[in-house]
Write a structure and sequence with these properties.
The protein is α+β, with helices and mostly antiparallel strands. It is 35% helix and 16% strand. The protein has 14 helices and 21 strands. It has a 6-stranded mixed beta sheet.
Amino acid sequence: MNTKSFQVSAEKSVITADVLVLGGGPAGVWAALSAAKQGVRVVLADKGYCGTSGATAPSNTGAWYLPKGGQRDAEIERRLSRSTGLADRHWLQRVIEQAQTGLNDLGNSGYPFPFDDQGQPYRANLRGPDYMGFMRRRAIAAGVRILDHHPALELLSSNGVIAGAAGIHPRSGNRWEVRAGAVVLATGGCAFLSHALGCDGNTGDGYLMGAEAGVRLSGMEFSSQYGLSPAHTSVTKGLTFSFASFYLEDGSPLPETGEDRAVRIARQLIAGEKVYALMDRGSPVEHDWLRRGQPNCFLPLDRIGLDPFHHRFPVTLRSEGTVRGVGGLEIINDDCATTVPGLYAAGDAASRENITGAVSGGGSPNASWAIASGTWSGRAAALFALSLGEKAGTRLVHGLGEAGLRPRKQQIEDGLITEVISAVQAETLPVDVNFFRSGSRIALSRERLDAVWADVRDYLVGEGRNALRAREAAAMTATARWIWASADARKESRGMHRRTDFTTTDAAQTRRIFTSGIDDVAVITEENHWK
């Protein structure tokens, strides 16, 4: 356990530590644990309650547990073939290796993995509530100081080096600061308050904070990921639907067109038709296993008295944005460092193009990425903080936050926060806007979002708990602008980026697209990006 003490200044409500981790999901807790192992003081600040907040906590998820050999090699080749040329073999190899190491570490620490038919621990699956509760207890035992319900509003900087973060306690309205030698952004992605299960805390906060510090984003066009769910619920877990057949309202099967299932369902929904699911595949034994293994998928159906194995139910597609999409902050080396000294990114806050390319990493890739990127970024942040020596605690710092915190003009009516969120959702959530894309619709979204951004920069601010809502609204607006700028630049269809005016994949566009800037968004393709 770390034996160094935390310094707290009662006068300024300032905590001094070596490493600050923002975000209490799996990537954040792995980062905190990894940093603590270096013997430094670690603070983890979570928007919610670390252990229950985020997309992993209410879910079951697979993870890559693949020993060296044919099975691992086959998975790497499969992922490379699906990535449309944008994944990297080196990163896939090291993520899979680190995930296995992390899962072994988890088991050796006492995590209750289930046993397979041969009586061996099955380490390729994690039950979200158990996993995150266990990780919280591990972090506390390692000496990590956890600040629950402490959302960060901005990063702190000292002469171009990240020096901590400042935020608010929404219930009390009290402001806080953590001054640290390094910061890991593990704040998750952005689902635009779509109500996808566990995702409403993911509003792109880390993207905005990173961009304000000068970090670019990569792969933001790969954000049109939609999860299938019963129409009346927020549960977007896909495993249950592998046991389902799909039907139109008249009872006829969903037409087979050779396209992906989600694409076929999206076409029907956009046409104004309802689509129904019936879990009529598999045996009764498998159905019982499914119900016991995925209880939260069935609870909303049980509550309305519907047996999904015998009765059809309507389904919908719910946006998961960059949470199960791809885009995020650019990382520049194996330590998950950004271009800004003292700032690291992990989990969904970072771009996952290196391991997934243009397709979703939902499930094993993202869960493994959280373990690996958290481990690497936490260790590197600790070593960076140690390199600063005693001067880290005496630096003069200033906040980098602007939009939603420091408006250019006088504040106007309180309703602006709600108006901004609704306007952004109109350009990101509807299936007929974002699942399929066209140049004319992208241009319209960009025009509308630029107008929203002008109001955000001039007027948006909030007091008390509305300070968080204002900052979330600003982050969602900024994220949407980066998404559409990137989508506009990729004039082809690739992975989840589906354009109706450029329907084929262009080999010449097998490259990364970067976005940068806050007020003026710039797009840089990989051929001419600055090193």
